[in-house]
Amino acid sequence: MAFDQFDNASRVAQLNAGREILPRDFKVSSVSALLQLVQGDASIAASCQRHASALATQDGVSNACDILTEHFAPVETLQQTAVLSNCRYSSAVPATEG
Hints:
Layout: H1 4-14, H2 28-39, H3 42-56, H4 60-92
């Protein structure tokens, strides 16, 4: 199990979209009982439907791109400024002939 799977399982449980099971409890009997419980739980079904409807109205890819652009735009601006500064400095230094 990867490290983020514990966080994902916890979020699913907090959203009432499922239940989490710890690796130490991961046995056929435990998983089977938990699957039956989840499949028969009307509140989980309703919660999943509510979350699915909310997600269907959003453009996840566009939202992710916007967030990444906002986050990395300052870095890109700083890099462009540094490149421009380097160009100014390098153009001020006369070229040497070899």
